Structures are given as structure tokens and as C-alpha cells.
Amino acid sequence: MTRSRYLRRRGSRNATELTDLEHSVLLAVRRKHTATVQEIRRELNWAGDSVSIRAALLRLEERKFIVHSIELGQFFYRHEGSPERTPDISDDSAAA
């Protein structure tokens, strides 16, 4: 998957719609239950720097899809969304 695919918007944006990167990051966090930025980068095979991943995590946290905790200076992210607020984040790659 190319980096530009992740940066594309997923149609018109409302409270539950995500960019491709946000969608992929949220899937990675849900699969791992608790994940660090480095673990998410590995899961996505992200060739770029971690700034884009961190920005997506921040946006997801602002929208209350995930929360973070800090242990020994390391940020850990986990899914924190009620079913009615969580967008459909089925794994599109499973259908491919």
C-alpha cells in the first residue's frame, strides 16, 4: 500500500467518517487492543516517519475513538468508542 492511499480522504467528512490513514490506524489499534506508535507503524508497514501516525492518533483521540495512557514515558493507545459512535471499520483487506 502506498503512503498516498493513506492520506486520501474517505469521501465527505462527518463525525464518524475517517481518512484512509485514520481508518487503518484505528483497525491496527483494535486488532492489537493496546498499541504504541511503533507497533502501529510495523502493523501498517508505514515507510514514512511517525508524525503522520501520531497526527492520526491525535485526531482519533479528539473524536473519542481511542484513548491513551502513559507508562514509563511510552504512549499506549486503545480503542474507546461506543458502538453508536464508532464508524464502520471493517477490515477492507479481508474482502480483497
Structure description:
It is globular, with a radius of gyration of 13 Å. A 3-stranded antiparallel beta sheet has the order 1-3-2. Helix 2 (20-32) crosses helix 4 (51-62). The longest helix is centred in the N-terminal third of the chain and has 13 residues, at 20-32. It has a domain at 19-84: Arc Repressor Mutant, subunit A. The chain is built from 4 helices and 3 strands, in the order ααβααββ. By secondary structure, it is α+β, with helices and mostly antiparallel strands. It has helices spanning 3-7, 20-32, 37-44, 51-62; strands at 34-35, 66-71, 74-79.
Q: Tell me, rounded to a whole number, the average pLDDT.
A: 79
At the fourth level of CATH, the homologous superfamily of the domain at 19-84 is Winged helix-like DNA-binding domain superfamily/Winged helix DNA-binding domain
Q: Could you give the order of strands across the largest sheet?
A: 1-3-2
Helix content: 25-40%
Low-confidence stretches: 1-8
- Category from helices, strands and their pairing: alpha+beta
Question: What is the CATH C-level name of the domain at 19-84?
Answer: Mainly Alpha
Going by CATH, the architecture of the domain at 19-84 would be Orthogonal Bundle
Radius of gyration, CA atoms, in whole angstroms: 13 Å
Distance between termini? 13 Å
Strand content: 5-15%
The name of the CATH topology of the domain at 19-84 is: Arc Repressor Mutant, subunit A
Count of DSSP H/I helices: 4
| Largest beta-sheet characterization | 3 strands, antiparallel
Shape: globular
Q: Work out the number of β strands.
A: 3
Order of helices and strands: HHEHHEE
